[in-house]
Amino acid sequence: MKTLKIIKIGGNIIDNEAALQQFLSDFSTITTPKILVHGGGKLATKLAQQMQVDVKMVDGRRITDQETLDIITMVYAGKINKNIVAQLQANNCNAIGFSGADGNTIVSDLRPSKPIDYGFAGDVKKVNTETLEILLNNEITPVFCAITHDKNGQLLNTNADTIASELAIGFASKYNTELYYCFEKNGVLKNVNNDHSVIENINTESYKTLVENKVIFEGMLPKLNNCFHAINHQVQKVCIGKSDMLFDKNIKHTTITK
Amino acid sequence: MKTLKIIKIGGNIIDNEAALQQFLSDFSTITTPKILVHGGGKLATKLAQQMQVDVKMVDGRRITDQETLDIITMVYAGKINKNIVAQLQANNCNAIGFSGADGNTIVSDLRPSKPIDYGFAGDVKKVNTETLEILLNNEITPVFCAITHDKNGQLLNTNADTIASELAIGFASKYNTELYYCFEKNGVLKNVNNDHSVIENINTESYKTLVENKVIFEGMLPKLNNCFHAINHQVQKVCIGKSDMLFDKNIKHTTITK
């Protein structure tokens, strides 16, 4: 089977123009089929403030009312996605931007309004890979923003980490699928304040212990749940770390195994 | 040769939610390969006002500084394009949203800064149809917003009518290509105040006379120049009128011929 790399980048790259340019230049050198998934960074919050729309967060997750949905659609699918695509094209990487509505690639259910009403937030129900496979077979690179749809005309705000893991799972029977979560740290750290304290391997058993001992907590919990969800659904390889791990094998990072 | 319909819609449909829904439902019933091109309507101007960014126009054309480029990228490629795609999917039309950067489909040159500096405005240089052909062959419908790129990482604001005619020309050797400009009137009118005074056929010769007699003027001039540009470059059929002309053969409209 061919290898497919699914790479998710977040705010530390998106919000830093020089870092983004360097990353996209490096990303373009990857010769295997690949899919890029990007988060939104701070731009959506900045635009909301500029438009005097209140930003409502519960447990670190955005409450997506209609105005907020419009803002994230404009920022994620518009400004960020199209600028990434244009820069990839400049690096001779033939990219096409996607939301989950495009090609009906990712269908979500509206998240139940209880216990917390997150508004137009979507939980992924189904990934349709057919169209994406056609593109990958033609050396085209899909670039996903964190928006899906319900197949009834409604766009939905969806967590970018989840989109990456669900895409990886969707392709796992067709490709040797590798999932990379790039973020600001070298990986999962034993000591959150020491970037050299990378835990190089976490499996289901050691994960339990790390959670019990509160070494892994807060924002890292959903990220790692996405990792284990992927590795338990046929995804071959799941890694967390700085994006450098993709381009230099000597860079320490965390690998998730069963 | 198979028929390809390239259909451009403007503000009268984009800015009216009910009209847009009806159009997209009708559009989805078209069984030939098809491409939709949409303008931006009034939303970009509205957002600019909300963000307190000045809107600068010269001769009806927007001056696109960096802030304005960000706004149109957000509104055209984000909000409008993704909502159209989601609604087409709800109508079982498998659409994918495009700017000219996506798939490197439309490459433009930055418009010369003299006599008027329009900022980040692009004049179409080349249409690459390969990726779009793959999609059309797989019953996927591309939906274009009015943004292109220079292949060096720069997005450019580009006239939607021009995008439609250049796409039509790009496909003219591969498909029996038909180009439809949908707008708020029944076609080119003898008397601009009488929607029943449709001129049903205009050719190169009668066009000259109509321009000399100032029957055709202002905003209609560039639209008709796009029409003749297309018809003089192998496009098989060019029509202007209300979008109803697509779905009802008895609806009067203007057809452009050599």
* Annotated CATH topology of chain A: Carbamate kinase
With strands numbered from the N-terminus, the spatial order across the biggest sheet of chain A is 5-8-2-1-11-13-14-12
Give a count of the beta strands of chain A, DSSP E runs of length 2 or more: 14
Gyration radius of chain A, in Å = 18 Å
Number of helices of chain A: 8
- In terms of quaternary structure, the protein is homodimer
Element order, helices and strands of chain A? EHHEHEEHEEEHEEEHEEHHEE
Site (Transition state stabilizer) (chains A, B): 8, 223
Enzyme class (chains A, B): transferase
Pfam families (chains A, B): AA_kinase
Catalytic activity (chains A, B): N-acetyl-L-glutamate + ATP = N-acetyl-L-glutamyl 5-phosphate + ADP
The gist of it:
Chain A has helices spanning 11-14, 17-27, 43-50, 66-90, 130-137, 160-171, 204-212, 220-231, and strands spanning 3-9, 34-38, 57-58, 61-62, 95-98, 106-110, 122-127, 141-144, 147-149, 155-157, 176-182, 201-202, 237-241, 254-256.
Describe this structure in words.
The structure is a homodimer of 258-residue chains. By secondary structure, chain A is an alpha/beta fold. Chain A has a single domain, classed as Carbamate kinase (3-Layer(aba) Sandwich). Chain A has 8 helices and 14 strands. In chain A, the strands form 4 sheets. Chain A has an 8-stranded mixed sheet, sandwiched between helices. Chain A starts with a strand and ends with a strand. The model of chain A has no long low-confidence stretch (mean pLDDT 96). Chains A and B meet through helix 4, strand 5 and helix 5 of A and helix 4, strand 5 and helix 5 of B. Chains A, B: Keywords: Amino-acid biosynthesis, Arginine biosynthesis, ATP-binding, Cytoplasm, Kinase, Nucleotide-binding, Transferase. Chains A, B: It catalyses: N-acetyl-L-glutamate + ATP = N-acetyl-L-glutamyl 5-phosphate + ADP. Chains A, B: It is found in: Cytoplasm.
